[in-house]
Batch of 2 targets.
Target 1
Amino acid sequence: MKRGSIAIVGMGVTKQGRALGVTEVELRRQALEIALADAGVERDAIDGYILASHEREDLRYLGLSPNFSWPVQTGGATAPCTFIMAAGAILSGQAEMVACAYAMAPSSGGMPGFGGKMSFGSLGYGYPAQVGMIGAASAHALHARWHMDHYGTTSEHLGAVAVQLRNHALNRPDAMGYGQPITLEEHQASPMIVDPFRMLDCCRDTDGGAVFIVTSAERAKSMAQTHPVYLLGAGMGHNIGNWHQRDVYAHHDAIAPAIGRALAQSGVSLDAIDTAQFYDPFTISVIMQLEHYGFCAPGQGGPFVADGGIALDGKIPSNTGGGQISGFYAAGFTPLIEAMKQLRGEAGATQVKDARIALTSGHGLNGGVQNTWSHGTLILGAEA
Amino acid sequence: MIGDLVAGELDAPFWDAWKADETFLLHRCATCGRHDWPASCCIDHGQAPMAWVPTSAAGTIDTYTIFYRAYVKELAGDVPYVVAVVRLDEGPYFHTRITGIAPDAVKSGMRVRVRRGEGDAFPLFQSE
C-alpha cells in the first residue's frame, strides 16, 4: 500500500458504557448515522461493508446496498484488519467507500457458559480450559508472570500503568473513569483476580458501537466538509510463529513484523510518532508493547511508565483516552477511536499538542491450546 | 475441573494412552526428532513423519497464573488454583494444573512431573 492513498473520512461512535440495554445491530445503526453525517455522505455512497464479526441482518436493518459485506473476526486485531480489508477493496477497485462497523453489548448479556455438551473447538483456549484456564485475564497473566520473573517487573509497575491510564481518563467525559481518580495504594489493595492481575489491572466489558468510513485519498479531496485522517501504513504479525519456536511468553504478540511493515509503508521512523494508542485489556499489555514497539528497552516498560513515559508530556503519550482499562472497551476500536480524536484535535483535556502521526495496535483471537494472537498495527496521519 | 473431558479427535491416541495406563505421548517427527503437542504437523517436514511416542512427562514451569476467582460455578471449590505452562523436556509447552503444593509456593523454573495413580482424566503435574 502506498502511503496516504487511503483516507478515513467519517467516524461515528455511540455512547460506550455498562449495560446500555441496546442491541448490537441498533448500536451499529446509531454509529453509522453519526459516521455518515461526519463524512457528509448519504447511505447510498457506501458500496462496501465490513463488519467485525458475523452479520445476518445488518444490511437490511441499516438500509445499506453495498456490493459486498465481509465478516472479519480476529479478536482485538479485528479493528486494524477491517481498515486493511477496506484499503484492499478500494485499491483493487471493488469499492469506493467502505463502512467498517463494530458493536458489542456484552455487559447487557452474560458470559458464555461451560458445561452441557461441548466440542473441543468450542473451548476458547482448547484443552487448557479443562484445567480451569478461562478468560482473557489468565491468558495475559501468563505473559505478565513471565515478564515479572524474567525482568523484575513488579505489581507496582502494573499499578503505575493503571494509575496513569486513570489520570488520562479523569478529565475525559467519554471515559468510564471520568472524574474517578485512583492511587497506587488503591491498586495494591484491589483484590487479586488471576495472579499477578488485581482488579484494577483489568478492563471491563462495555457496550457500544463504532463505524468508520474509509475511501481513497483522491475521493477525500472532493469531500469539502470532512476532516480526513490518512492511513500511512499497516502491518500484521501472528504469535503462532513464536509457539513453533517455543518462545511465546517473551512476546506479547509478534509485533516486529507488524511495526516493520507499517513503518516501511509510511516512510517514517518511530520517533516521528506523536502518540501511541495500544490495545490494553490488561496493564501488562502497555508495558510489553512499549518494549516490543521499541519505545523503551526490553524489560524497561514498567519503569518507563512509572517515570511518566506515557504521560501527556512523556516520551510517547499513550492511551490518552484512558485506554480500555479506564476508558471503554470497544475491542480494537478503542485505540482507533482515540487516534482519530487525537489527529483531529478532538481529544479535549488529553489532546497531545500538534499530534500529526499516531500509532494504533490491536491483538487477539486464535486462542486455542497455543494461546497465540494476531497483532495489527496502523499508522495514521493528519496529512497524507 | 469443569466436567467430562472433551478430546479433539486428532489427539485420540494421546487420550487413549493416558486413559489406558497413564502413558504420556507426544507427537514426534521421525525425520528431525522434534516433538509437539497436541497433534501437529512438523513445521519443517509436514505431517507424514509424525507419530505418537512415549515421553518423559517431565519439564520445568515456564510461566503460570493463580486463579483467585472462579469464572464458572464448577470451579468454585478449586480456588485458589494454579494453571502453569510446563516446558516439557522434549520441547513442547503443556498447560496443566500444578498439584500438591501451595499455590504461592509455585515458581517459574520449578521442575515438575506428571502425577500418576490418582485417576486423573487430564494429566496434572506435581513438583519433582
Target 2
Amino acid sequence: MRLLVFAHRAEAQTFLKQANYRSLESKSYPIYKNADSYLIISGEGIFNALECTIATLSKFEDISVVYNFGVAGALDDQSEIDSIVEVRTCYAIINEVVEFKSFTASSKSKLDCITSSSRALDKEKASKLSPFANIVDRELWAIAKASSNFSLDFRAFKLISDEPYKEESKASICEVIKDKAEYYSDKLYKEYLNIIDQPIVESKFVIEEYKDLYFTISQYRSYSTLMTQLLTKYDSEEDILKLVEVDKIITLDILPKQRTSILLEKLREILTPFNSKLQSQLDQVLSPLHEARVKTTLSKNLEIDQFKISATIQNEVELKKIARALTNLDYQAYRSLMRGNVDV
Amino acid sequence: MFDKIFVEKSYETNARALSIINRFPKAKVSVIDKIEDIFNRVKKPYLQKNESLNLFLGEKKGQLVKEAPDAYGLSGEPHYYFIHAYNCIYECNYCYLQGYFNSPDIVLFLNHRDICNEIESVTEECSKKGLTPWFHAGEFSDSLALTHITGELEIYHELFSRLPEAKLELRTKSANIKALLELTPKKNIITTFSLSPADKIKKNDLQTPSLRARLNAIRKLADAGHPIGIHFDPVVYDENFKEKYTQLVEELFESLPVDKLEYISVGVVRFTKDVFHQVKKNYPSSELLSSELIKSFDGKIRYNRPMRLWILSTIREVLLNANVDKEKIYLCMEEDDELVIDS
C-alpha cells in the first residue's frame, strides 16, 4: 500500500473525487483509504506533517512507500512555474536554523527542496534558502523524516506555484494558490496516474529453473547474497554457474538439498579465492593435530599467530598420540603462512 | 563543472578569486559572509557531485599546517600536511572523503601566503632540531587536478625554492601537469602519482585519467627533470593480482627510468567503519564489497593479516625484480605486522 500525504484538502480534491477513497475513522486528522493507498491531509507546516505521517505509519503496517504531493515555490530558475518537479533531496530550516539532516528520495531528479518552518514569499527570504535547494515547501522534510524512521522510501512531486526569488515584496501568493487549487490538484492527480502506471520489474535468479536443486529459505538467502557479490566480478549468473560447473553438481547422486550445499560451497570458493587457498594450506599444516583429534581454533580473522587447541584424553595411548602430533606440527610453516607466505 | 560559486565577501574582488570565477562563466556566483555558513551545514549526498557540484572560495582559518598521522609517509622524518582545498573532482569509490565531509562540494582556500608563512615557521623549528620536514599537499584534495585553474603551484614552488631543507610532496591521480611543467624542477618538490592496474583504475578510480594518461604525465615530468614518487595505494586483490602488478611495474619503468624513482609506497585497501558504510551505500555493486575484507583488530575494514602481508611481499618481490632499490620501497603496514623476510 502507498501513503499519499497532502498538506491541504484542496490539493487532494481530485484524488478524493477520482480514486474511490473512503473515509476512515480518525479523531485528529482526515484519513482515507482505497484499494491500493491511504491518503492523509496533514495540515500545513513541519510539525503537522511529522505528527500525521508518523501516526499513520505506526497505525498501518502495510504501507510500503510514501508519496508527498503539493505546491512549492521556486528559489531559482531551475524549475518553471506551473510545472511539476520530482524532488531529489530535502533539507529543512526551522526557526532560521538549518537542519543538518537531509533525506534523499529514490528519484533521478536533480532538484532539491528545502522545507521552511516559515513562509518564503520574497526575494530576501529566497536568497537565504537558495544556497541549499532549488525549491521551497512547508512539509516535505517532515514527511521524509517520518518515512526514514520507518525505513520506507519516499517520493515527492511538487507543483511550482510561485517564484519568490523574483518577488521584491511579500506577494499575496497564498490567495492565488487557493484560487487555483482545483487546477493544481488535477495536474498532480494526472502526474500520480503516470507514476503508478510504471511497471515494477522484479528480478529472479536463473537458479530457480534448476529443478534438481532444492533450496531451504536460509540456503536461498545465502545464494542470493553470494550471487549478488559475485555479480560485481562476473558478467552474469549464467557465467558464474558455468564456472562452478552446476551441470555436474545437479547430476550428483545425493539429495537435492545436499547438491545445493555443494553449489553454495563452490560459490564461496570463487568469491574468496585467497582465503580458500589459505585455509586449505593451514588445514594441511595443522593436519597432524586434526588426525590426533585435537581441535584447533585460530585467532579471529587470523589477525594474530596465536591459536588454541583442545582435546579429550581418556588414556595413555591418546596422550602419547597427542604428544606425537604436537611434536610433528611444523610451527614455522604455520607461522610463515600466518605472515603471508602463502602459495597462491 | 560547477552550478554555483560561493565567494566570501572579503575575496569578492580578489584577483585569484576572480580569475577562478571567470573560468566558469555559466556558474551562478553568490557572495557570502563565510564558507562555513553554507558548506557542511547540511548533509549533501556524496554522489550528487556528479550532478550538481558547487564551488566555495574563501579563507582557511585555524590551523593551516597539521602534523600528519603516523605511517603517513617515509619513516624517520616529521610529516605535515597543509590544507588549501577540501574535496576532489574525482570519484574514487574507496575514497575516505566520501565519509569525511558532509558535502562533496569543492572548497578552495585562497590565503596561500598565510599557509606559506606557517610552513616556513614549521620548517624553521624542524631545522633547529636537525630534521627534514615533509609537507604534503592533497590530504583533502588532489594536488594537481585543478592547478591550471587555481594557479597556486608557483607560490609553493617559490616557497620551497627558498626552503631546500624542507620537502614538498604533490600527490595526484591526475595527468594535469601543464602548470608544473612551466616551473623549474626542484630536488625537494616531489610529484607522486597514485597508480593501479588499468582495469582497477577503470573500476575504482572513477572520473580519473587512465593509467596511460598518468604514465605519459610521469614520462613528461621525468624528462623535464622533476622528481617522481609512486604510490601503489590502495592495492585491491583479485585472482590475477600478481600478473597485473608485474605488468604495471613494467609499464611504469618504461615511462620512468628506475634510477629516477624517488620512492614507492605500497598500501593495501582499508577503510574506517564509516567510510566502508558510505562505500556500501554509494557503490553497492562495487567489487570492493565482494572482496575478502574483514573487520580488523582496530575496527577498520581490511584484508586479514596473512592476505595483506602476502600482497605486500608479492609487490615488494615484483619491485625488487624490476631492480628497485629496497631502500626506496615503503610498505604501509600496521605496527604489529611483520613480513616473514623481516622476522
